[in-house]
Design a protein that fits this description.
CATH class of the largest domain: Mainly Beta
Oligomer: single chain
Strand content: 35-45%
Number of helices: 9
Structural class: alpha+beta
Radius of gyration: 35 Å
Shape: globular
Number of domains: 4
CATH architecture of the largest domain: Sandwich
Largest sheet: 5 strands, antiparallel
Helix content: 25-40%
Distance between the termini: 84 Å
Number of strands: 32
Length: 579
């Protein structure tokens, strides 16, 4: 065999082996159950799921401790997430336990792509039915649940609004929510809203999280969270001797009042305390390691953590004994949603100037109060060795270094007047005399001009004034979205646009958080005098944001158009409904 053909053969074998390994890497075979605990008189759904393959010779586990009420039922499906597709084949059984205790369902096997795949065994806890407790338990109830009921000022608390239901709920209407006096509340989107089977008071419920908030206490003491109130629509049947009639029963529910005991931060606080409460991480970047006394060192410090990022103040990154420290520029300040809670991110950019030549070991640190250990911690992950040489005295940086010097009052010695000079005889010949003489006239003319200018502003077209105010409001509301637009970050951009529109409409129409949906927004805009075209534009842009955030359609090719549409929406809303 020729060398070139041999090398081609080796490459072909290598890539074929790699492709086959990748194919097997994407194939999974797993056993799933819809609950981990159950009652003896209940049922559990057991599923065998094969992903990204077509299998054969399926060997399900023996269900020795269960009665098979239904199955196996076979289903197929395909999902596409961010342009990547996957397929699955599912076999489903509905099982009822025969006895109490911890029951085990053994492994299953299937053949595909020349291999045998095997699942792990699964266990489930079967509990005794408490008929007395179950009879006194409600069919449905609402519960607000806190991650903790004791906290420090500024510490993040997660509040989940959970619905426990055992009936067929077809509608939910939140009619009242707490005012959260004493908290800074931040709505969350990335929470698990899937129904889960749970056992409460001897009865099995489907628990679903309807909403989630991140709460940050702003004061100490025992703070009360007033109840949520909701009306459920549950499907019921009424029958008589001849027929059965279906109807919807309206069920009012409310949560209990909650209490959070909030403590002040311990004293004494370190002199370098930044105000941050929670857990934070620090990243520091320096733009150089060699410089002169004519240069300014730029330090970009990124702080990320599970805390109220707005409480975080600027802090000195270096010693003021060796460096002149100027007020930092805040490049970015934002809240980021995550499955575990709200994350905050703040980026400072400092300019520091050395006072003298030398070698400096810099280790910028952030001092914050760590809620896990209940003590003050300094995080200083990076160190920099900076070599400073003497300069020429001509600054190369553009920060404002001017200082205002106080003028000292000094008394001049008394001297005799020259011959031919006398007091008070030469004032009209002095230029400053006539300047002081005409100064009142100049001031009066200036006041008259200012009054005419204000009158001109008052006489301007109200529509033009409203348009200018609307443009300023749009720019302020969409500040965070503009940052993500410039950085071509599609998903954070759409999250910021949606949050800006919701926040603007909430503040303008005094809408509670529970009513911030596309249907209510359309009704409020129409009632305020907005035309149908404006409400349709709102609906389309909010729908685009939802598709980007929850359906994976977060392409970056239309960010500029979406940003301009959002600006025009706020401007046109102010023009049509009044500022």
């Amino acid at each position: 065999m020729r060398p070139a053909l041999f090398i081609l053969f080796l490459f072909t074998c290598f890539f074929a082996t790699k492709a086959k390994a990748q194919q097997h890497q994407d194939i999974t075979f797993s056993a799933e159950m819809d609950k981990e605990k159950m009652l003896l008189n209940s049922t559990v759904e057991f599923r065998l799921v094969l992903r990204n393959a077509q299998g054969s010779d399926l060997q399900p586990p023996p269900f020795r401790d269960f009665n098979v009420l239904r199955g196996p039922l076979r289903s197929m499906g395909t999902t596409i997430i961010n342009g990547v597709g996957s397929s699955h084949i599912t076999h489903t059984w509905q099982l009822q336990p025969k006895r109490l205790g911890e029951l085990t369902i053994g492994p299953a096997t299937i053949r595909t792509s020349g291999r045998t795949y095997r699942t792990n065994s699964r266990k489930i806890q079967v509990l005794e039915v408490d008929a007395a407790a179950a009879s006194s338990s409600p069919d449905d109830f609402l519960r607000a649940e806190l991650s903790t009921d004791t906290a420090f000022v500024g510490e993040q608390i997660i509040l989940n609004l959970n619905l426990y239901s055992s009936t067929n709920v077809i509608s939910r209407n939140l009619v009242q929510e707490p005012d959260f006096d004493g908290f800074f509340a931040q709505p969350r989107r990335q929470y698990d809203g899937r129904p889960r089977a749970v056992i409460e008071n001897g009865r099995e419920y489907q628990r679903r999280t309807l909403g989630s908030l991140a709460l940050f206490p702003t004061k100490s003491g025992r703070i009360t969270i007033t109840p949520y109130r909701m009306v459920l629509g549950a499907l019921r049947y009424r029958s008589n001797s001849t027929f059965s009639r279906r109807f919807t029963e309206q069920i009012p529910l409310n949560t209990d009042s909650l209490y959070v005991v909030v403590s002040e931060l311990p004293q004494p606080r370190p002199a370098t305390f930044s105000g941050g409460v929670g857990t934070y991480r620090l990243q520091v970047q320096a733009d150089r390691d060699q410089m002169t006394t004519d240069d300014a060192l730029t330090l970009r410090i990124t702080v990320t953590g599970e805390g109220d990022i707005e409480r975080l103040d600027a802090f000195p990154p270096v010693s003021d004994k060796d460096w002149d420290i100027y007020d930092p520029e805040i490049i970015q300040e934002e809240f980021l949603d995550s499955p575990t809670g709200m994350l905050g991110r703040k980026i400072f950019e400092y300019k520091v100037v050395p006072k003298r030549a030398g070698k400096y070991a810099l280790k910028p640190g952030l001092t914050y109060f760590n809620v896990d250990s209940a003590r003050y911690i300094t995080d200083a992950p990076s160190s920099f060795n900076i070599t400073v040489t003497g300069g020429t005295g001509a600054a190369t940086y553009d920060v404002d270094t001017t200082a205002i010097l106080e003028t000292k009052l000094t008394l001049l010695p008394v001297t005799e007047l020259p011959n031919g000079r006398s007091y008070g005889s030469a004032l009209p010949s002095r230029p400053w005399f006539w300047g002081l003489f005409f100064l009142p006239l100049l001031l009066a003319g200036g006041l008259i001009g200012l009054q005419r200018y204000r009158s001109h502003l008052d006489a301007r077209d109200p529509i033009e004034l409203a348009r200018e105010r609307a443009a300023k409001a749009a720019t302020q509301r969409l500040k965070s979205a503009k940052i993500h637009l410039d950085q071509v970050q599609a998903r954070p951009f759409y999250d910021a646009v949606e949050g800006a529109l919701f926040g603007y409409l909430r503040d303008k129409f005094q809408l509670p958080m529970a009513e911030l949906n596309r249907r209510n927004i359309k009704d409020r805009l129409t009632a305020a005098g907005a035309d149908a075209q404006l409400t349709d534009r709102y609906d389309k842009l909010l729908q685009r944001c939802e598709m980007a955030l929850y359906a994976g359609q977060d392409k970056a090719d239309d960010l500029a158009a979406a940003y301009e549409t959002a600006r025009e929406l706020i401007t046109d809303t102010e023009r049509q409904t009044g500022a």
